[in-house]
Design goal:
Elements: E1 6-8, H1 12-21, E2 26-30, E3 35-39, E4 46-48, E5 53-54, E6 60-61, H2 63-85, H3 90-105, H4 108-123, H5 140-160, E7 161-168, E8 177-178, E9 183-186, E10 205-210, E11 215-222, E12 226-231, H6 233-245, E13 250-253, H7 256-266
Parallel strand pairs: 7-12
Antiparallel strand pairs: 1-4, 2-3, 2-13, 5-6, 7-11, 8-13, 9-10, 10-11
């Protein structure tokens, strides 16, 4: 039976962790409104029936959202095993790579980047800043089509990279996430407010994806190696700064002091959003 669904732009598995560690839910920073608020995980960053479509007879279908739910459920099981044992199989790697690929291509930030890329090449002009969050950009159908076409390619790329699961050393610290949770940073970049101007396969770039409050996945270089590494408080903060720096609309964290500190340090409250990969 077809039923309306809520499409969440933020990994639900990540958000569910807040229920275990913080009874008050989570803190959200809204970059467009430059405002902070406390919110329940089930209420954040969603659009109702975003992936629903109608056939020629007007019947509405929700199979795309259902398929994405299956991808997310499988990834949640994989992430849980990683949290419990740290082990990963080849199947786990592909499941998680697919999940991350969809988390990258299903976001409004990715749709905005595609829209700017299309506009730039159509006009044969150089563009350095994409439309502001909230611009119409690609139509919903175009964005969905791009996601379905591009995600398998990105999944293949992510699966081929060397992986390292970064874990916090103390429960006093936590990783944050955003509505654009797949971010790229230069490997040895001394400044935090610098976007990576290269692709996922560049040896100078690390792709970061927060898994839970306790862990994040880093991917870099071709090799399919798998490691684990504990991070100090300063190292966790550096990861968080990269995540916040590339958030398009929302940042999510477990307490107000943490989120406010990261927003101030990155300065995202004082500048317009732009993509992590500039179109040239």
């Amino acid at each position: 039976m077809n039923q309306p669904r809520r499409h969440h732009f933020v990994p639900r598995f990540y958000l569910q962790g807040f229920c275990a560690e913080n009874a008050q839910g989570l803190v959200v920073y809204d970059r467009v409104r430059n405002a902070y608020r406390a919110q329940r995980p089930a209420e954040v960053a969603h659009r109702r029936d975003y992936y629903a479509y109608d056939d020629a007879q007007g019947n509405r279908f929700f199979d795309i959202e259902a398929a994405l739910g299956e991808v997310e459920a499988a990834a949640g099981q994989t992430i849980q095993r990683l949290e419990n044992s740290g082990d990963i199989t080849d199947e786990d790697r592909m499941v998680l790579a697919t999940y991350i690929a969809f988390q990258y291509t299903r976001t409004p930030a990715y749709a905005a980047w595609l829209d700017a890329f299309r506009s730039t090449h159509a006009a044969d002009d150089e563009i350095g800043v994409l439309p502001e969050a909230g611009d119409a950009g690609l139509s919903r159908i175009e964005a969905i089509g791009a996601m379905l076409r591009h995600a398998p390619t990105f999944a293949h790329v992510f699966a081929r990279l060397n992986w390292t699961v970064w874990r916090r050393e103390s429960e006093r610290h936590s990783f944050v996430t955003s509505d654009s949770p797949v971010c790229r940073v230069w490997r040895d970049q001394p400044e935090v407010n610098v976007y990576a101007g290269a692709g996922f396969l560049s040896p100078e770039v690390i792709t970061v994806f927060p898994l839970t409050q306790a862990s994040a996945l880093s991917m870099s270089g071709i090799g399919e190696r798998y490691d684990q590494r504990p991070l100090t408080r300063d190292q966790v903060r550096r990861v968080n700064l990269a995540v916040v720096d590339q958030a398009q609309h929302h940042v999510f964290g477990r307490d107000m002091a943490l989120v406010e500190s990261l927003v101030r340090r990155t300065g995202v409250d004082r500048r317009q959003w732009q993509p992590p990969l500039v179109v040239e």
